[in-house]
Design brief:
This protein has a single domain (3-183, 219-252), classed as Rossmann fold. Helix content is 51%, strand content 13%. The protein has eleven helices and seven strands. The chain has a seven-stranded parallel β-sheet with strand order 3-2-1-4-5-6-7, sandwiched between helices. Residues 2-173 form the Ketoreductase domain. This is NAD(P)-dependent dehydrogenase (Short-subunit alcohol dehydrogenase family). Keywords: Oxidoreductase.
């Protein structure tokens, strides 16, 4: 059985992933920024005698990550790192502050780097390990108003692809999991009506997410996919998850860059018609 470190376990995909690995008998180190604000995972672990330890770790903080992971490594190897912690950031490039761009990169990109750098030397030395970075279909296609979020996921994808090339020589598997629209608190926030803006895409995406959530895809589906990627031993780099993930990527792949830009700039009726395959 493996020792599995997971970030962002307070709710959603991280929470479900911790439970999925624990039910399979793995030792789970479930981290979150403020465990006192999200006691549910610790409570269910105690009630069900799951091998889950809830730990405080803020991926935005150098000292928090290094202190937490150094202490864990002192007690034994970390076999699997799952970088799940993430935040959304939506809005036009004009209207979002530079601080907001930095904040989303800090968590979604630099947060993953902090955790990777803290564990990767021990994996390299043991010539064993697995690093799974939770990206999104937004890591492979960019459109307003999700540009700030997409930029962070594109960066994570580039990081992961390069890291995979470095670590395969040391028998360390590295992979990306790319969900579509999943019923999480993040998706629910996106599905709320967008603030007034001269850029019309915010309202469009709020409507699109709200519609998708009418037939919700649970985060447990992503957790199961993450587990399958680990458990299968695959060296495949990218793994799409969810019923809309493959169609979204296929749509983007069917269009030139200029066609994609024009579609995103255009009216809602044309956008939704193309989305539905018409």
């Amino acid at each position: 059985m493996a020792t599995v470190l997971i970030t962002g376990c307070s709710k959603g995909i991280g929470y479900e992933t911790a439970l999925t690995f624990a039910r399979a008998g793995h030792t789970v180190l479930a981290t979150m920024r403020t465990p006192a604000n999200a006691p549910q995972l610790a409570e269910i672990a105690k009630a069900e005698s799951f091998p889950i330890t809830v730990l405080t770790m803020d991926v935005d903080s150098d000292s928090s990550v290094s202190t937490c992971i150094e202490a864990l490594l002192a007690n034994g190897p970390i076999d699997v790192l799952i970088n799940n912690a993430g935040i959304e950031m939506l809005g036009s490039v004009e209207e979002q502050s530079l601080a907001n761009f930095r904040a989303v990169m800090e968590t979604n990109y630099f947060g993953a780097i902090r955790c990777i750098q803290a564990v990767v030397a021990s994996m390299r030395e043991r010539q064993s390990g697995c690093i799974l970075n939770i990206s999104s279909i937004a890591g492979r296609m960019s459109c307003p108003p999700m540009t700030p979020y997409c930029a962070s996921k594109w960066a994570l994808e580039a990081l992961t692809e390069g890291l995979a090339g470095e670590m395969k020589a040391f028998n360390v598997r590295v992979a990306l999991v790319e969900p579509g629209v999943i019923d999480t608190a993040m998706a629910q926030r996106i599905g709320v009506s967008a603030p007034a803006s001269p850029y019309h895409q915010g309202a469009r995406f709020a409507a699109m997410f709200a519609n998708s959530l009418q037939q919700p895809v649970p985060p447990s589906l992503v957790a199961e996919a993450i587990f399958d990627v680990y458990n299968s031993g695959t060296w495949t780099l990218r793994h799409l998850v969810g019923p809309d993930a493959v169609p979204f990527i296929a749509l983007r792949g069917s269009m030139s860059d200029e066609e994609w830009v024009t579609l995103n700039a255009g009216d809602d009726a044309t956008f939704f018609a193309r989305l539905s395959g018409n």
